[in-house]
Amino acid sequence: MYRLIARDGMAKSGEFVTVHGTIQTPVFMNVGTAAAIKGAVSTADLYEIGTQVQLSNTYHLHVRPGDKVIKQLGGLHSFMVWDRPILTDSGGFQVFSLAGLRKIKEEGVYFNSHIDGRKIFMGPEESIQIQSNLGSTIAMAFDECPPHPASREYMQDSVDSTTRLLVLCKKELQRLNSLEDTINKKQMLFGINQGGTYADIRIEHAKQITELELDGYALGGLAVGESHEEMYYIIEETVPYLPVDKPVYLMGVGTPANILEAVDRGVDFFDCVYPTRNGRHGHAYTNRGKMNLMNAKYELDSLPIEEGCACPACSRYSRAYIRHLLKAKEMLGMRLLVLHNLYFYNHMMEEIRLAIREGRYKQYKKQKLESLANNEE
Amino acid sequence: MYRLIARDGMAKSGEFVTVHGTIQTPVFMNVGTAAAIKGAVSTADLYEIGTQVQLSNTYHLHVRPGDKVIKQLGGLHSFMVWDRPILTDSGGFQVFSLAGLRKIKEEGVYFNSHIDGRKIFMGPEESIQIQSNLGSTIAMAFDECPPHPASREYMQDSVDSTTRLLVLCKKELQRLNSLEDTINKKQMLFGINQGGTYADIRIEHAKQITELELDGYALGGLAVGESHEEMYYIIEETVPYLPVDKPVYLMGVGTPANILEAVDRGVDFFDCVYPTRNGRHGHAYTNRGKMNLMNAKYELDSLPIEEGCACPACSRYSRAYIRHLLKAKEMLGMRLLVLHNLYFYNHMMEEIRLAIREGRYKQYKKQKLESLANNEE
Q1: A72 to chain B: which residues are within 8 Å by CB?
Q2: Nearest chain A residue to B38, by CA
Q3: Using CA atoms, how far apart are residues B277 and A336, in angstroms rounded to an integer?
């Protein structure tokens, strides 16, 4: 259940009540693809860096260790020892990218596991069954991921297919939630809006899926090659046609600036691998832009990555030490940067929520964007 | 200053007072070669797993980031944010193994850095200067590392050389400790007993270096290919000729069984890469022997690595989860195993100290060896 707490222009801040606790929005979900955050970060660490929601990938967990294994072990929450909300994706995106498929028949698609080549069948029912086995808080609908660019005709076809798939997903989740041995009988479902950069297709689709009265709505198929301006335009056009009393999730986005702009257009949920991936490559997010900790100028720098930052890296270790760890290929260097970057994102979301609730979001966004643009590299 | 607290047969337990706090012996030092424990373990973690002493490698820190860099940053304690004792080795062992040298001239040896090929000169003064720059609690003397096996004549020559080097090290440390800008003016020096498996050479050498009245004494050149029985015999023969009111350090040893036997022959200090290296390869130490967490039989095993263990891994995560992390090549798997293994070693040393202080060491050792032999793999 979503409770709208404050609006500031189109920006909104709410509380999303789940069986695993209440999520304050806007929120950035921390990505733990294979039931672990890359960079040796544990769920114990996630509590420390203010993570509200952990996101795991259905496809990855289906192929290893297997969703049935995880179900036998009590579900994903029990498996990775995390009692706050978990969102799982549908696996569709991986099916399309790994199997090289775009259009699928309604009943699903065969493809080979990237681990052992085993043939796997995945369709809307299978995706929901896997997510039910994982027992995540929020399941994502299995949709078609159209290419970018795509012709208008192709896009309309694909979106129609996504709508039909969504109906099947909803039905399957209702069935599974009513079964005795289902791990999370209150599993929620988010539908996914598609339509590429065709605003009218997006809007029509938004209206259709709104009628299905789902727990939340996602914008899919963005940040796939279109410009930031196109993405912001599509969000701006589409969000007004999604219910204001439900959370809106912009999938796979993005940079701090992307998030600031999307929040300003009414988005509640985000996820992105940037903070973990950049951390593992030696880059840190700060309020003065990104830093490359491998840079020679940090050799004797005894300051933390960012002064005043309360993350587990900054509250102890210096730039010089972290630089040394990266140069010496000590895993600890990556770990400290990933912890810092996730903390940075989580902390920014906290600032965002406060600014919206205090009615000063436009001003906050302007200042934050200016400071982030001061890239000191 | 070493205070003998209890003796139980030849086993002894003491307190070693240093400028960075008091070490309870017998103690296992946790190896952080390049100023970090491999496996993404931070000094913050070390406090949590009961680490008393951290050991770093002089050669590695000399070539990267450089001991002068570390000195400018306030020394190794400040660099890695660790306020308890640190022991640094002399770098001699790395010089011998990396440069392929065995015999050196008294003044030192040239060799190439394994990082950038740069020519480096290392002798007794250089080793002590580097260790002084690092500001470690305990510096190790620069010695010759004889091959195994070596002829009696070769060994006698080498040991004589080690004695002469030790005199130079002691003199250089005294000089450096009196300088104004030295980081740790109370840096201590441990001398190293050599002699391979020639008990009489060992004993004669032990007597000689005892006369130098150092802060502690190490047994070097063991666990280099001789049998465990030969090693125990040499410890047994030599330790009685080292002062009982000084700590005895058995370098680079070893398995839990090795440690139990060496403690029974009067050893106080240990260090070994086994717990970290085995952890990174998926192996866990337990009181029922070693476990290979990659084993398929743990796929659905919801127990912790070891029931009752209070380490950060066992207090939260299951064998099944750790196995999954290892299979998925998630760094977190290695990290959890390294934390468990170091905790296992540190905790065993605590049991050892208690058993000695309560006069039941023989009984404890017997039981522990029996339980460790129950290798369930």
Answers
A1: 300
A2: A330
A3: 21
Interface test with A, best of B69, B321, B329 (most A CBs within 10 A): B321
Segment B180-200 mean pLDDT: 98
pLDDT at B120 over 90: no
Chain B CB within 8 Å of residue A115 CB: no
Q: Annotated catalytic, B271?
A: yes
DSSP A305-329: SSTT--STTTTT--HHHHHHHHHTT
Q: Which two tokens stand for residue A296?
A: 């020679």
- Say which residue the tokens 């049935």 belong to: A68
Q: Write the ipTM.
A: 0.97
**Element housing A27 (H / E):** strand A27-31
Q: Please give the share of chain B, as a percent, with pLDDT higher than 90.
A: 89
DSSP string, B289-302: EEEETT-GGGTT--
CB contact under 8 A, B43 and A316: yes
Q: To 10 degrees, what angle do helices B228-238 and B199-210 make?
A: 40
Report in angstroms the alpha-carbon separations of B217 from A212, B194, B220, B276, B370.
77, 11, 9, 25, 31
Beta strand B248-250 pairing with B216-219? parallel
Predicted confidence at residue A95, as pLDDT, reads 78
Q: Which pair of structure tokens corresponds to residue A234? A: 């599509």
Instruction: Select the residue of B35, B69, B325 nearest A300 (Cβ to Cβ).
Output: B69
Q: What pLDDT, in 10s, does the model give residues A188-245?
A: 999 999 999 999 999 999 999 999 999 999 999 999 999 999 999 999 999 999 999 9
Spans in chain A with pLDDT lower than 50: 376-377
pTM greater than 0.90 (yes/no): yes
CB A250 within 8 A of CB A270: yes
Contact B1, B16 (CB under 8 A): yes
pLDDT at B376 over 70: no
Cross-chain Cβ contact B321/A74 below 8 Å: no
Task: Say whether pLDDT at B118 is over 90.
Answer: no
CB contact under 8 A, A81 and B302: no
Domains of chain B, earliest start first: 2-272 (3.20.20.105), 282-373 (no CATH)
Q: If pLDDT is split at 50, 70 and 90, which confidence band does B255 have?
A: very high
Residue B67 designated active-site: no
pLDDT band for position B119 (cuts 50, 70, 90): confident
Query: Is A67 in contact with B357 (CB distance < 8 Å)?
Result: no
pLDDT at B375: 64
**Out of B56-60, B86-90, B118-122, least confident range:** B118-122
Q: How far is CA B129 from the centre of its chain?
A: 21
Q: Which of A56, A133, A295, A331 to mutate to test the interface with B (most CBs of B within 10 A)?
A: A331
Q: Return the residue of A nearest to B115 by Cα.
A: A328
Beta bridge partners of B352: none
Helix axes B228-238, B256-263, angle to 10 degrees: 30
Decide: B304 and B249 in contact? Cβ < 8 Å. no
Q: Does A48 touch chain B (CB under 8 A)?
A: no
Q: B109 Cβ partners below 8 Å, 6+ apart?
A: B95, B99, B101, B121, B122, B123
A320 CA: distance to closest CA in chain B (Å): 8
